[in-house]
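ok here's aldehyde dehydrogenase (NAD(+)):
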Amino acid sequence: MTTIVEHHRILVGGTWAEPATTAVIEVVSPHSGEVIGRVPHAAPDDVDRAVAAARAAFDDGPWPRMSLAERAEIVTRIRDGLLARHKEIAELVTRQNGCPIAISPRGQALSAVAVFTAALAVAQALPAEEERAGLTGPMLVRREPVGVVAAITPWNVPQMLLAAKLAPALLAGCTVIAKPSPEAPLDAYVLAEVCAEAGLPDGVVSILPAGRETGAHLVAHPGVDKVAFTGSAAAGRQIMAAAAENLTRITLELGGKSAAILLEDADLDAAIPDLIAGAFVNNGQACVALTRILVPASRYDETADRLAAAVAALRVGDPLDPTTEIGPLVSEAQRTRVLDYIRLGLDEGAKPLAGGRVPEGLSGWYVEPTLFGDVDNGMRIAREEIFGPVVCLIRYADEDDAVRIANDSPFGLSGAVWAGDVTRGLDVARRIRTGTFTVNCRRFDVAGPFGGYKHSGIGREFGPEGYTAYLETKTVHLPKPPKD
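and the structure:
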């Protein structure tokens, strides 16, 4: 019998409160299709309460006026609370979005802990004030919190992406209203419980699970000073337009269609395991997924055969089985979207090399990991973000052609290159217009800035750049010192 996780209240300004309506979000297992959780669906009235609490806490409360050391002590307690419950978080995320449990502890839960650890280090290294010598006299440059932050996160890496906004915002002295997605709200309740127990002052944190209507109300709220959003480019455009009405600051981390380039001298034995992991991470439901693999024409057949064999060997199954490598997609609607793209790829003339079907014997929202060959970069499957386990293999003529194809995309979030010579690989990395890139490896490090060029977003998360996104800069001109 399926265990159903139920919550009946929402966290408003650090206090557990009754929701404004009786509306409920039912969380459905992508593996079985059964209901596994129920939580209140926060309404616009709940947003109004949360913003009022956050506004009062920021304008008149102690949180922005505490020293960084005082805030860091409380944020450290949040970090440690998440660490203590990381196994619970990992299982909840897997049950909600289908991420294989083999990667959830590190990729879904401990990654959030790492975000808090990295943010603490960055904040403690950056002075709140610094004196500078101006052209006409001395000045003091201050860094002050931006204000009330709306943090809106998706379902694919829910805990880490919420931590990416909450940790720097809290350390900066901001107050936060978080809206986790309706597909994955259960792990957000663990975070809410940890925050409620950490000793935050009243009003500082609210966590409101809800859908688009409530999110739209939050984004457009005149009491919000900054919106931090992770999601699709289409939703990002809507948020940007709504935020413009109030000149609300924004950080947008959006979609990707990242290219992995294999140079002619690449070591396929080393590259292919990393390529497969990078392409099909989280069942392909990752903005950083390497969904376009660029291969020199001289090595195309060899690479296609080896990649097809590796994709076909991936184990599809119950995401709670530790041997599973590919779990289900998050919802029936997402599976329909991915299957539609697979049919489109066939219609466009791409050659199916592996997968492409619904696997037999599984009742959830599964799609076989799919590899298309003979893909032209102008095809829709090569240009649009599918957000599922579908990867395109594209030939190129020479290095300049590879760079051209990689850059010929509306997105610019991530990418990779494998080369026999690291220096040559780094030269290629410098030519690709994308926010993150790897050379001869597959890495993601929350100590460095992360974000995208072009339609992949505006601004950066993580690192000093992610922290300062939650700060305003004030210049105070000082009198010249008296002459001796």
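+1. The radius of gyration is 23 Å.
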